[in-house]
Specification:
Blueprint (H helix, E strand, L loop, with lengths): L1 E6 L4 H11 L4 E7 L18 E2 L11 E4 L3 H14 L2 E4 L6 H10 L4 E4 L5 H16 L4 E8 L9 H14 L3 H4 E3 L13 E7 L5 E9 L2 E9 L3 H14 L5 E3 L1 H4 L4
Parallel strand pairs: 1-2, 1-4, 2-3, 4-5, 5-6, 6-12, 7-9, 8-9
Antiparallel strand pairs: 7-10, 10-11
Length: 260
């Protein structure tokens, strides 16, 4: 039985993760965390006798793994506490800047942590297919289009950035120089080394990613569409069970799924 705490418990992803834990006989939910001032803090979660708290330290002793889908600043703060108490973590937060990713990596030298921009099985298979396609189609134009709901704060999505990074690494390109984030005006003809990345924000789209490899006469499109946040929640729970028995270090969903 793996005992977990869910950070951001009353958010869209937190609610789906909690729902996934209740359906898994190998998981026990022992804590629910929300930001200070949230209207649910101090109230019953509706799961056993658990109450929502804004103090991770007050509940972390009982946990094996902390699952975090919050925001970059909160995630780093939570990971420091996970490190202090010698627990493990699963992080699905997106929008971390370079400094925050560095902090996460440093913390992971002392704890076991799964960090992934997308925890769905399908997307992680997409990552592998993208790498294989880039290797085979090295001189094709590459464009990435992602679409999400109108409340998503960061752009492009963490998944789109991960796809772009995979392609850049395979092709030996510098994403900082060759990444093109949308186009407007007289930008001139497309440069061969460009990796185009475009973001759509509309309605209640859960998550869509399309990767296009195009040349004269043909194009290959790899598409993943998420129909429910449950796919991410199930991946997070799977990652929590996996990381509970792992030594210190930084892992991703490719490790969890055995795709490396």
């Amino acid at each position: 039985m793996v005992k977990i705490i869910v950070c951001g418990a009353c958010g869209r992803m937190g609610e789906r993760i909690i729902n996934a834990t209740l359906k898994d006989k190998d998981i026990k939910l022992v804590g629910a965390l929300e930001v200070k001032g949230h209207p649910m803090v101090g109230k019953d979660l509706g799961v056993g006798d658990l109450k929502v708290t804004d103090d991770l330290k007050s509940i972390i002793d009982d946990a094996d793994v902390v699952i975090d889908f919050t925001n970059p600043e909160a995630t780093i703060k939570h990971l420091e506490i996970v490190k202090e108490y010698g627990k493990r973590a699963v992080v699905g937060t997106t929008g971390l800047d370079d400094k925050q990713v560095f902090q996460l990596r440093k913390i992971s030298e002392d704890i076991a942590c799964v960090f992934a921009p997308n925890m769905s099985v399908g997307v992680n298979l997409l990552f592998k297919l993208v790498a294989q396609s880039a290797k085979a189609l090295g001189d094709y134009d590459v464009e990435i289009v992602e679409a999400h709901h109108n409340l998503k704060k960061d752009a492009p999505s963490g998944t789109a950035k991960k796809i772009a990074r995979i392609i850049a690494d395979v092709l030996g390109r510098d994403l900082d120089k060759d990444g093109v984030y949308g186009r407007h005006g007289m930008v001139g003809a497309r440069k061969k080394q460009e990796i185009g990345i475009h973001a759509v924000r509309a309605g209640d789209i859960v998550g869509e990613h399309t990767v296009t490899f195009a040349s004269v006469g043909e194009r290959l499109e790899l598409v993943h569409r998420a129909h429910s946040r449950d796919t991410f929640a199930q991946g997070a729970v799977r990652a929590a069970k996996w990381v509970a028995g792992k030594p210190k270090g930084l892992y991703d969903m490719q490790d969890v799924l055995g795709l490396k």
